[in-house]
Design goal:
Layout (H helix, E strand, L loop, with lengths): L1 E5 L3 H12 L3 E5 L11 E3 L6 E3 L5 E2 L3 H9 L6 E3 L4 E6 L2 E6 L7 H9 L4 H16 L8 H7 L4 H16 L8 H13 L7 E4 L3 H14 L3 E3 L2 E9 L2 E9 L4 H5 L5 E6 L2 E4 L12 H4 L12 E11 L8 E4 L6 E4 H4 L7 E7 L10 H15 L8 E14 L19 E3 L12 H15 L2
Parallel strand pairs: 1-2, 1-14, 2-10, 7-16, 14-20
Antiparallel strand pairs: 3-4, 5-9, 6-9, 7-8, 11-12, 12-13, 15-18, 15-19, 16-17, 17-18
Helix pairs in contact: 1-8, 1-13, 2-13, 4-6
């Protein structure tokens, strides 16, 4: 069977690899020269280090993503904690959630004792855990409503839940669908203790995506970069292929000024692994006017902002720290993750659900990141900022509100031969790398059904 997968993000890579391993003839087309979609990176010309377009963090519960990475022989890029350990800092100093090697969820309960919290907050956290473990999924509720229903007060939300939930769902608790956080909590904290540990990358996300692409090609897949799909062709009510503009792929072709050419690739199955807002424009007008495609316009967008900063000395000690009571919520030491612990220290600051931050000018965002360092890290007193960058992803994810869950389609569409993949589809998870990979594998299974 001939299959075309449109989109070289993690959903498309997962679908293409799974389909190729089922002995299908698979072509993966990506409009850009880099792979990874909304989880990619580039090589910074000045520092020589990789810069992600928004640092993504994995956990042990990302079972299908970790399986895919190891299957492709890229397991050496993973850096996993032995046990969950999460560092925070605020005006009172550092504190750490350090979970011992106990069965889940006892490891989390014991870890709460190590974190500086009022006892009332600890009891509220236990109450939430019991609600997730024994209660019904909170369908139709926002996360803020679910927190209120389970007795989470302002201090519990400020010190524990709001920063974590916003990072997980990429939406504020007042907008986010509670059922998505509920599912992540179940998979991360209630299954087994290894599921909750943090998993980092020793490289940029673009490098990992390239290794997955190389694995796909090495096993017989056809990878087409810089191939802009203009239309998904539908004839007789069935998807029959794609029309695309192939631009020069290699450096030699680009330097030679090779002109773009129009092509058509026939297929028995087309898997769209595009963002929700990009798909409808590729479909015939009559198809895009029908559900589920017409409903995709109702999905809103939620941005992520990141600030990359290089300091003349090491200031932040852990490789990942949560910044309480701060506009910028998390900071990663990318230099240490990449195996370079010395100066200049390369830090990456992340603002999830950055509806307000995304419109701020770059100097204001850089000043906020530097201000957080000077507020929370004493070593910053003698340090200087060598260089900084601001990156914005205005369409980082869909806005995962309760009303959007009914709009997220599964892999099978009303158009025979057209399947869907992407973190925005009905994965049961927020828009995460794991959701993308699961959706790609689900589309591959549906192709063989």
């Amino acid at each position: 069977m001939k299959v075309v997968v449109v989109g070289g993000g993690f959903a498309g890579l997962a679908a293409a690899i799974a389909l190729q391993e089922r002995r299908h003839e698979v072509t993966l087309v990506e409009r850009r020269g880099v792979m990874g979609g909304r989880a990619t990176s580039y090589r910074d010309a000045l520092s020589g280090e990789e810069v992600d377009n928004g640092t993504h963090l994995m956990i042990g519960a990302y079972r299908e993503t970790l399986d895919l990475v190891r299957e492709a022989g890229a397991g050496n890029v993973l850096l996993a904690q032995d046990e969950l350990c999460l560092h925070y800092v605020d005006d009172r100093g550092p504190t750490t959630l350090s979970c011992p090697p106990l069965p889940a969820p006892l490891h989390l309960l014991a870890g709460l004792l190590s974190l500086r919290l009022p006892w009332s907050v600890r009891w509220q956290a236990v109450r939430l855990g019991l609600a997730v473990r024994f209660g019904a999924p909170p369908l139709g509720l926002t996360l803020a409503e679910y927190f209120e229903k389970t007795g989470q007060g302002p201090e519990a939300r400020r010190l524990l839940w709001d920063p974590l939930a916003t990072a997980v769902v990429n939406e504020t608790p007042e907008r986010a669908a509670a059922v998505l956080f509920h599912r992540v909590y179940q998979e991360a904290f209630l299954a087994n203790r290894k599921a909750s540990r943090l998993v980092f990358l020793r490289c940029g996300w673009g490098t990992l995506a390239d290794r997955l692409g190389a694995y796909f090609e090495a096993r017989g897949g056809r990878l087409r970069r810089r191939a802009l799909v203009e239309a998904i062709e539908v004839e007789g009510g069935r998807a029959v292929g794609v029309r695309l503009t192939q631009r020069a792929e290699s450096r030699a072709e680009i330097q030679a000024g090779q002109r773009a050419r129009e092509e058509r690739i026939a297929a028995d199955v087309v898997v769209s692994a595009l963002p929700w807002h990009a798909l409808p424009t590729l479909l015939p007008e009559g198809v895009r006017a029908e559900p589920p495609f017409r409903d995709l316009a109702q999905l809103r967008r939620s941005p992520i902002v990141s600030v990359e900063m290089w300091l003349d000395r090491a200031v932040v000690d852990p490789v990942f720290v949560g910044l309480r009571d701060c506009e910028i919520e998390w900071v990663f030491d990318k230099g240490r993750l990449y195996g370079r612990p010395g100066p200049p220290q390369h830090l990456s600051f992340i603002v999830s659900a950055a509806h307000r931050s995304a419109s701020k000018p770059n100097p204001e965002l850089v000043a906020a990141a530097e201000g957080a360092l000077r507020r929370y890290f004493p070593a910053m007193k003698e340090a200087a900022v060598v260089r900084s960058l601001v990156l914005r992803e205005p369409e980082a994810t869909f806005s995962a509100g309760p009303e959007t869950e009914a709009l997220r389609p599964g892999p099978v569409t009303p158009v025979p031969g057209l399947l869907l993949a992407g973190d925005w589809t009905a994965t049961g998870l927020p828009a995460t790398i794991e959701g993308a990979v699961r959706s790609g594998r689900a589309a591959a299974r549906a192709a063989g059904a």
